[in-house]
Amino acid sequence: MRFGIVVFPGSNCEQDVKHALDVLGLESRYVWHGEQDLSGLDAVVLPGGFSYGDYIRCGAVARFSPVMNEVVRFAERGGPVLGICNGFQILTEAHLLPGALLRNRGLKFICKEVTLRVEASVCHWLDAEPGSVLRIPINHNEGNYFCDEQTLERLNGNGQVVVRYCEPDGSRAPGGSAPNGALDDIAGVCNERGNVFGLMPHPERAVDPLTGGTDGRVVFEAIVRRMAKIGS
Amino acid sequence: MIREDLTPEVALELAVELGLKPAEYDRIVEILGRTPTVTELYMYSLMWSEHCSYKHSRRVLKMFPTEGERVLQGPGENAGVISVGDGWAVAFKMESHNHPSAIEPYQGAATGVGGIIRDIFTMGARPICSLDSLRFGPLEKPRQRYLFEGAVAGIGGYGNCIGVPTVGGEVYFEDAYEGNCLINAMAVGLMREERLTRAVAAGPGNLLLLIGSTTGRDGIGGASVLASQEFDERAEEKRPSVQVGDPFEEKLLIEACLELLDEKLLVALGDLGAAGLTSSASEMASRGGVGLEIDVTKVPQREEAMKPFEIMVSESQERMLAVVTPENLAAAQAVCDKWGLRSTVIGQVTDTGRFVVREGETVVADVPADSLAGDAPVYDPPAQRPGYLDEVQSFDWHRLPHPDCGYLLEDALLAVLASPNVCSKRWIWEQYDHQVMLNTAVLPGSDAAVVRIGDTGRGEMTRRAIALSADCNGRYCYLDPYLGAQIAFAEAARNVACAGAVPVAITDCLNFGNPEKPEVFWTFREAVRGLADACRFFGVPVVSGNVSFYNESFGNAIYPTPTVGMVGLLDDVEQRCTMAFKREGDVVVLIGETDDELGGSEYLKVVHDVVAGRPPALDLALERDVQATVIEAIRAGVVNAAHDCSEGGLGVALAECCLAGDIGASVYLSDDLPPAVALFSETQSRVVVACVPERVDDLIEICDRHEVPYSVLGTVGGDALVFNDETRFPLQRLREAYERTLERYVGSAEAVAGADE
After folding, report:
1. Residue B254: closest CA among chain A residues belongs to which residue?
2. How would you list the strands of the sheet with B291-295, edge to edge?
3. Is A202 a residue of the active site?
4. B602: left (phi over 0), alpha (psi -120 to 50) or beta
C-alpha cells in the first residue's frame, strides 16, 4: 500500500507525515501540487501547513491547484483521502467535506495536546472502539468547526462525526470541551461514504514515542487494515 | 560618468542627518577623493551605522574566545557553525529586533524571526528550531500588554507559518524595559558538514541573482534610524522604518535556496537584512576581494519612482542575493520558478574591487567595495563605572522584616511563584508551533528544549540531540555587570546540563544603552569581560552574536542584558531528562548548597519591592563540577528529574518539579538558614534532582567524586508540596498561583466556556 502526500507551496507538515509513515513502515511519496497523476497511489494525505500562505482564507487557494482536480476524482472513485489541519480546511473548501473552519474563538493560535473521543462513525480512517479517548496535539489558528443546523443533524444522523474534543475522562464539559470553540466539540468529520476524513488534530505528531505518544497511529493503521481487507 | 548630485555643503548636511559624524564624512571624502553622491552617502551611513559596523563594540568583542575543536565557522559570517558528530553540523545565531518591535510589536517581532531564519539557511542549513528572549515593562501597564501580546503573536505568526518550531525562550518584565522592549530571536539550523556555504562572492563575470520579494520603501534606514539611535517623543514617526514580513514568501525561499544548494547551482548566497542590498552585496564582495556592479533599474520594485538610494538601502523582507555562473543561470531560475519565486539578474561580479551602482547608463555610486564593510571607523569610547553601583550594592537586605513562619511564608512563596518573571509561560508557548518537524524531544516548559538531530523528511535520523537554552537575568547585570553576565552563562549551561547535555558553544545578543555614555560603555565592557571569562573557563566558544546599543528612551537605559543562547549536546536522545518529578518514593536531593544570598532576588522585588543588593556569588569551578555531576547522574540513570534553582530559589524549583510531574513531595529545609533565605535565596550552582531510591548511594558517590556538596531533602509523593511536615501546599493551590498569571493580564488563549451562549 502506497500513500501520496500532497505538497502545496506553504505546506509544512508533509515531512512529518512522511516520518510518521516511515516509523510505521508504510511506503509513501510526495505529490507536488502541480502533478496531475495519482496513479499507483492507494491513499492520499493532505498535510498541515499554510498552503499558499493561507491568504484569502485557509485552503481557499489550494483547492484550485491542479492536483486537487485529481484528488477530487480519486475521492469520488472511493479512494481514501485524509486531510490534517490545513488539509482539512482544503477539503472543506473543495466541498469534499461539509462545514467550514473558522478562527479559534479565543482569537489565538493554539498548539497543545488535546483529548479526543472516538465517535461511532462510518469513517474508513478510524476503527477504534467508540468512546475510547485519544491524546493527539492540535496546532492551528482556524480550527473552530462550523456548519448549519441541517448539516449538523445530517452529520450526526449519518455517523459522519468521527472525533470530538473531550475531557481527559472522555466526557464533554457542559460549556463545550473544544479549545477552539468548535460547534458540538467537532474535531473531525468524514464524508457519507467514509473514505474522506478531515480533522484538525495532527495524528502524525503522535506516532513516534520520542516526540509525543503513539495515539495517532490508529488513523494510519485503520486505513491499512481496511485496504488489506478489501484487497484480499 | 558618475552623477554628481550634491555640493560639498549639502552633502555634509545630509551626512549628519543620516547619522554620520562630521569626521566620518571627512573619511568618506578621503576614500572617494571627491564629494559623495546621495546614493553613496546612504550606503555609507547604513554600513557605518552602529548596527552594521559594530564600531563601538568591535574592540571589546575581541575578548571572546571563538575557537574550539567543534567550531566550523566562528563570528563574521551570517551564523556560527559547529560540528555535532557523525558529519552533522549545527548553525545558530541570536539577533535583536528591539527597536522595530517597540514601535510595531507584531511586525517587529515577526521580521526579527524572519531575519534570523534567513541567516541560518544562508549558511546552507535547514532551520530546525528557534527560541526567543523577550523583555517588557510591567504588565500592569496597557502599552506593555499591547507590546507583549503583539510580539508573541508576531513570533507565532511568522514561525508557525514557515514550519520551524519555536521550542524555548525566556521573558522578564521589569520597569527598566518599559520604554525599550527587547526581542531577541535565536535560530538553529542543521546540515551535513560539507554543505556549509559562505557568503563570499567570486568569479568575475558571474551573475548577481536577486531572489524573492520585490523591493519597496519599507524599512529604509532601519539600521541607522531605528537601531542606532535612542528613542524620544518622535518614536511614532519612525513607524515607516519598520519592515513588514511575509512568512509564506520566506517558506518558499527556504525550500528554493536549499534546493539550489542541493543541486550545487550557486557560487555564493547571502540574505538581505539590515541595510538591504548594500550590506548583502558589499559584504559578499569584501569577503571575496572582488568588485560588483548593480543596475538598480533591474531590481523589481513594488513602488513607483523609487530613487537609486532607496532601492540600495531598502529593508524589504524575504529577499536573497545569490551569485551564479552564467552556465547555471537557467537551471537556478528554473528552481525559483518551481517555487513561484521571482528571480532577476541585477548585476555581476567584476575584478575591479569597486562596488558600482548604475541607474541604467548613469553611475550613481562607485566606491571601493571593501570600504563599506571594512573601513568603518572603530571607536574606543570612554568608560566609567556608574555611580549607582555603590549605592545598590551596599544595600543590606538583612535589615528587612522577613517572614519566618506560617501564612506569611506561605503567602510569600505563592506571590513569588505567581510573579510574571517566575510563573508558567504556557500562555506564550502554546501560541507557538513547538512540535513541527517531529524532533522536539523535550517540549517548552522545562529547563532546556531538546531537539533530536535528524532530517525527518528524508528519513535520516540519528540518536543524537541538541539541548538549547536562552538566558539572562538583567537585574543581576544591573547590580553587577561582570557577575551578571557570568551568571547568564552559568544558568544557560546549567539548564542544558539539567537536560543531560554537555554545553558546547554559545551565541549571544548583547543589549545595552547608548555606548557613547561612559557609564553605559563601562557596563558593556564589564559584561563582555565576564562572559568571556566564563566561556574561557568552560572551554565553550562564542560562535556568533549580535550587539544592540541605544536601547534607551528619554535618556533611561535598559538593564544591561547580555543574553546567552547555549547549545549543548546529547549523544543519546533517550537519555534526555526533564524537571518533572515522576515516581512516588524517589528521593529528592539538592546538589550544591544554599547560601545566604537574597540580593537582587525575585523575592526581594515581589515581597519587598526592592531591586538592590549584591547578586549571588558564582564560583565557576563549583558550577562546572555541579554540572558534571548532574550530567553523569542523568546518563547513569541514577536520577530521573533535574531542575536548576534560579529566580525564586529552591522553593520555586521544588514547586515547578511537582507541578510538571503532577505529583507532590515532602521535603525538609535546613535549620541553619532563616526560612526565607532557605526558600528564596538565589544561590547559584544548585540543582534539584529526583533519585531512584535504590541508587542514592551511587548519586552520593558521584557527588563525592566531583567534590560537590549535596543534601537529601525528602521524597516524592502525595498531592502536596510539604515543607518540614508543617507547611503544606496542595498542588492545586500551587497551580493556581503558577499557571494563571499571564492570562490574568492578557486573557485566556482558549475559548471561554459558554461565552457564546
Report:
1. A10
2. B268-271, B319-324, B207-212, B343-350, B291-295, B354-359, B362-368
3. yes
4. alpha
* Contact between chains at A20 and B438 (C-beta distance less than 8 A): yes
CB of B246 within 8 Å of a chain A CB? The answer is yes
Q: What is the largest CA-CA distance in chain A?
A: 48
Count Cα neighbours of B447 within 13 Å in the Cβ-side half-sphere: 33
Q: What is the pLDDT averaged over residues A204-229? A: 94
Q: What is the pLDDT of residues B293-310, one digit of tens each?
A: 999 999 999 999 999 999
Tally of CB atoms within 10 A around A112: 17
Q: What's the rounded mean pLDDT across residues B99-106?
A: 92
Sign, Cα dihedral of B45, B51, B52, B55: positive
* Rg from Cα positions in chain A: 16
Contact across the interface for A205 and B752, Cβ inside 8 Å: no
**Chain B: residue nearest A13 by CA?**
B436
Q: Is the pLDDT of residue B225 over 90?
A: no
Is B574 in contact with B499 (CB distance < 8 Å)?
no
Instruction: Check: CB of residue B318 under 8 Å from CB of residue B114.
Output: yes
Distances (CA, A) of B583 to B444, B589, B658: 21, 14, 11
SS3 of residue B680 by DSSP = helix
The string of pLDDT tens digits covering residues A63-91 is 999 999 999 999 999 999 999 999 999 99
Compute φ and ψ for B652, nearest 5 degrees. -65, -45
Contacts of A110 in chain B (CB under 8 A): 430-431, 749-750
Residues above pLDDT 70, as percent of chain A: 99
Residue B236 in this model has a pLDDT that exceeds 70: no
Predicted confidence at residue B753, as pLDDT, reads: 41
Residue of A nearest to B166 (CA): A111
pLDDT at B428 over 80: yes
**Pair B506, B513: CB distance under 8 Å:** no
Alpha-carbon gap, residue B355 to B281, rounded angstroms? 8
Point out the residues of B that are catalytic: 51, 97
Q: Is the pLDDT of residue B756 over 60?
A: no
Mean pLDDT of B218-238: 64
Terminal-to-terminal C-alpha distance of chain A = 13
Domain boundaries, chain A: 2-231
Give per-residue pLDDT as tens, B454-463. Answer: 887 777 889 9
What count of residues does chain A have?
232
Q: Nearest 5°: phi and psi at A102?
A: -95, 175
SS3 content of chain B, % helix, strand, coil (to 5): 40, 25, 35
> Would you call A19 a catalytic residue per the annotation?
no
What pLDDT is stored for residue B634 in this prediction? 98
Reported confidence tier of residue B233, pLDDT bands at 50, 70, 90? low
The residue-averaged pLDDT of B249-258 equals 95
**What count of other Cβ atoms lies within 10 Å of the Cβ of residue A168?**
10
**Mutant choice from B258, B317, B435 vs A, greatest count of A C-beta within 10 A:** B435
Architecture per CATH, A2-231: 3-Layer(aba) Sandwich (3.40)
Whether residue A210 and residue B437 make contact (CB cut-off 8 A), yes or no, is no
Q: Which pLDDT does position B754 carry in this prediction?
A: 39
Q: Are B183 and B134 in contact (CB under 8 A)?
A: yes
The CA distance from B81 to B90, in Å, is 5
What would the pLDDT profile of B319-370 be if each residue is shown by its tens digit? 999 999 999 999 999 999 999 999 999 999 999 999 999 999 999 999 999 9
Judging contacts by C-beta atoms under 8 Å, the chain A residues touching residue B247 are: 50, 53
| DSSP collapsed to 3 states, B244-309 | CCCHHHHHHHHHHHHHHHHCCCCCEEEECCCCHHHHHHHHHHHHHCCEEEEEHHHCCECCCCCCHH
What mean pLDDT do residues B131-145 have? 96
Task: Spell out the residues 6+ positions from residue B659 whose beta carbon is closer than 8 angstroms to its own.
Answer: B424, B731, B734, B735, B738, B739
